[in-house]
Amino acid sequence: MSVKKMVDLDLSGKKILIRQDLNVPVKEGVVTSDLRIQASIPTIQHALKSGAAVMLMSHLGRPTEGEYDEEASLKPVASRLSELLDMPVRLEKDWLEGIDISQGEVVLCENVRFNTGEKKNSDELGQKMAALCDIFVMDAFGTAHRAQASTHSVAKHASEACAGPLLANELDALGKALNAPKKPLVAIVGGSKVSTKLTVLDSLSTKVDQLIVGGGIANTFIAAAGYQVGKSLYEADLIDEAKRLMAAAKESGSDIPVPVDVVCAKEFADNAEATIKNVSDVDADDLILDIGPETAKQYAEILKSAGTIVWNGPVGVFEIDQFGEGTKSMSFAIAESSAFSIAGGGDTLAAIDKYEIKDKISYTSTGGGAFLEFLEGKLLPAVDILQQRSQ
Ligand code: 3PG
Ligand code: MG
Fold first, then answer.
1. Is residue 389 flagged as an active site residue?
2. Going by CA atoms, what residue is nearest to atom 6 of ligand 1?
3. Residue 225 and residue 372: Cα distance in Å, rounded?
4. Per residue in 1-28, pLDDT tens?
5. Average per-residue pLDDT in the chain?
6. Which ligand 1 atom sits nearest the alpha carbon of residue 196?
7. For residue range 256-292, what is the model confidence (pLDDT) as tens digits?
8. Which atom, in ligand 1's list, is nearest to the CA of 140?
């Protein structure tokens, strides 16, 4: 089944509403990695050139619905967009009841996740969004695995709904790369979003030859292997699931390795002291914030012989330098590997930015969870609805 594409539509004089994934890291009001914003620029420029009035929507972080939260405001994103487009970008705080906009203008709607009903994919909310525009453009590949009001319900109710160029290109490129990957296929799944990813690991573990886990997910596996994780982020109720995954991997001849050493701290802070420990020496008041150097070496070895590498999520808290060595080593190992490498996800892109390896990654995707689900072979809900609308 196919979807309608923005590039095939006449946008002249039309009000278009583009859902983008501008969920980027922000620190003290400044965007610290803008790869996702950069990736969205060609779509906006195309729409402007075609004579449209352009409204943009995105989420940022995971704020509480129904209230405004300055911390999760898209203000820093609006500034960066404006710089990259070299034109004013108006941030609209209250936009659900209508937006005043003319041809050639760009308006950014404040964080969609401030609206009640966004996460539940509310029809009422989707209808309000749909009423703002003549054409709804889904371009947020990174959020295409979420059936939410701004990715799904709006597409259901808009007069016309189509895929933007970024979404279309991602689906095309990832489809080609993952259809018949060169073996061995190694996946690195890290980051802090533990539970949402642990379930993804289940189906991933049967598709990949080797699975490397990092971050909060690794802590759950460390606990499952019988070690103490102290005060670290992990999920006690998923330990059995982690055990089952490790056993299943062994049975099928692959492996989910558990770190042999880790970097610990007594507190989560920019200036916290980092201590390298054997995984069996973690104390009750320790936080595991990175993999240790020996583990990084072992993982680098695995990456060296890979045919295809899929990378989603850092293996440590790389934003803080003393807990970034693990992610840095992995980044360099991926960069140096001759494997076809696909990397994606907000934090992963930020790490790629920080260690300046973008040119050495074969394909960088703006999707994290979305591309993992795509790799699992799932039909992404936001794509599903576009397919239905194109019939
Ligand atoms: C991401 O960063 O993975 C996407 O922007 C989706 O964000 P979410 O996991 O908070 O839905
Ligand atoms: Mg992510």
1. no
2. 143
3. 25
4. 689 999 999 999 999 999 999 999 999 9
5. 94
6. 9
7. 999 999 999 999 999 999 999 999 999 999 999 999 9
8. 5
User: Is 190 one of the annotated active-site residues of the chain?
Assistant: no
Q: How far is C-alpha 62 from the geometric centre of its chain's CA atoms? A: 13
Residue 189 has pLDDT above 80, yes or no: yes
Ligand 1 pocket at CB < 6 A: 21, 23, 62, 142-143, 146, 345-346, 368-369
Determine the distance from the C-alpha atom of residue 372 to the mean position of all C-alpha atoms in its chain, rounded to a whole number: 9
What's the Cα-to-Cα distance from 382 to each of 65, 117, 159, 283, rounded to whole Å? Answer: 21, 17, 16, 44
**CA-to-CA distance for 174 and 13, rounded, in angstroms?**
33
Asked whether the beta carbons of 223 and 234 are under 8 A apart, the reply is: yes
Is 346 known to be catalytic? yes
pLDDT higher than 90, residue 125 = yes
Strands (E), the chain: 15-19, 26-27, 30-31, 53-57, 90-92, 106-109, 135-138, 161-163, 185-189, 210-213, 261-265, 275-278, 287-291, 308-312, 340-344, 363-365
